[in-house]
């Protein structure tokens, strides 16, 4: 009878001797694994099935088996034909009268079906049946993880709470099947608006909540919210093209708008209500200052679009002085915006905006043209100074940078050696071979290339060595650093580059730089940035 049980059991059974070598296996073992009794006879434990050491002598399993005479667990097994399958196993040590292990018995079974069923059940418990999006359960889980990661990496996170506008009308007018089709289309549109690491979830009804991880700040969150609203407006159902969908979005940011998950979602929900009240089809931040900031920013962007046409930009020039002779050998062109209402704006206040909306390319072209014309005018007046122009990363990466610079030089009738371009470490790190080739071509024409704000970025020295530059400008935050300045100068010397210091304000600073062998300097000690005519007069 016992032999019958062994033979007919549906689970695989293997009996091992005290040295863990297989003595016998049953039919189910052969069926499940594909290995015959003959083939495995005398082989160690279940090693034929698994190369992971969980079963056959893995330290933990072994230890447990020795101390408890029993081990139970799961492992991934490989059948003879190479098929991988999850297995659930129980191993028992059979102890004789002297408390010595005489045999081991392993029973295991293929649990592929059960695992599939579990996966399906888990998926159903965590996803919305209609759209396939994560539901509130999975959303809560993802938000906890996202908050923990944001805390660890000190990044920001945004919650977008979205509610469709007048969804009830769609259901009432066209029926629930159409309503369902709209919800599915919304799910698809939302998923296309975000990055892979973000989460789009459905809260039920016509509410969706998004987690945007590692968000740059309120402007970026506003940008995503605006593109979400546009994408939802663009939805058309092929069978009912007249149906129009809209939505309102509330935004809460972490940190700032709530420490915990519930509070954040609640605040995003409140913000969404304000968006609805303010007339639907819009987004609102939970924080009033953020809303004001976004309004201000939109106004600034609109004004910036007009600024070129209205000739509101001007260039000021700051002298670059040779330390040894005290002579002005160059000038750096610095842009200012004479805003009709806000007065003179410094580059920090508008260059980032121009960079994010793409206007920087046109503005940069204008700066280059003006600076070249001015350099030509000075040269004609008998002041042969080099004009330095700051590049933005959009210009740096522009495939036609060389043509762009050539055109500016030709139009102004300026020799290339009177132009200097300033780049930053971040740009050099972004650039590829194309950028190296472009700058090599510019340098071959005689254009000088300077690495600006040196020390504030994180360029690798290997990249620096291979990038065609002729000068390093020590950032003004280091001018007083008696350890860094000599180190940077030594580095520049070994790379055969000239060194300039910026932001020099006192005679002591200059004396120190001179003693350290710095070639050039720039700063309030020599001169502020001034409009061109004054500079020309100052040198006459
Ligand atoms: P930058 O290229 O490092 O320019 C030097 C900045 O330091 C200028 O600020 C200048 O006014 C200021 N500065 C000069 N001497 C002193 C000093 O002795 N003490 C102190 N505290 N500051 C001094 P500005 O004009 O506000 O320009 C800021 C940044 O904006 C520039 O830094 C440059 O990165 C960018 N920028 C300026 N003009 C342009 C432009 O036409 N295009 C682009 N893409 N960026 C520009
Ligand atoms: Mg500069
Ligand atoms: Mg600088």
Topology, element by element:
Blueprint: H1 2-8, E1 12-17, E2 22-25, H2 27-33, H3 37-40, H4 59-68, E3 70-78, E4 84-95, E5 101-110, H5 112-126, H6 136-153, E6 156-165, H7 167-174, H8 176-193, E7 199-204, E8 207-215, H9 218-233, E9 246-254, H10 261-277, E10 283-285, H11 288-307, E11 313-322, E12 328-339, E13 343-345, H12 347-357, H13 360-381, E14 386-390, H14 393-397, H15 401-412, E15 419-423, H16 425-430, H17 433-445, E16 448-454, H18 461-466, E17 471-474, H19 484-494, E18 498-501, H20 507-516, E19 520-521, E20 530-531, H21 532-539
Parallel strand pairs: 9-10, 12-14, 14-15, 15-16, 16-17, 17-18, 18-19
Antiparallel strand pairs: 1-2, 1-5, 3-4, 4-5, 6-8, 6-9, 7-8, 11-12, 11-19, 11-20, 12-13
Helix pairs in contact: 7-8, 8-9, 11-12, 13-15
The structure holds ligand C2E and magnesium ion (MG) (2 copies).
Brief sketch in words of this structure:
The chain is an alpha/beta fold and 540 residues long.
Key structural traits:
single chain; 540 residues; alpha/beta; Beta-Lactamase; Alpha-Beta Plaits; TIM Barrel; 8-stranded mixed barrel; 21 helices; 20 strands; 45% helix; binds ligand C2E; binds magnesium ion
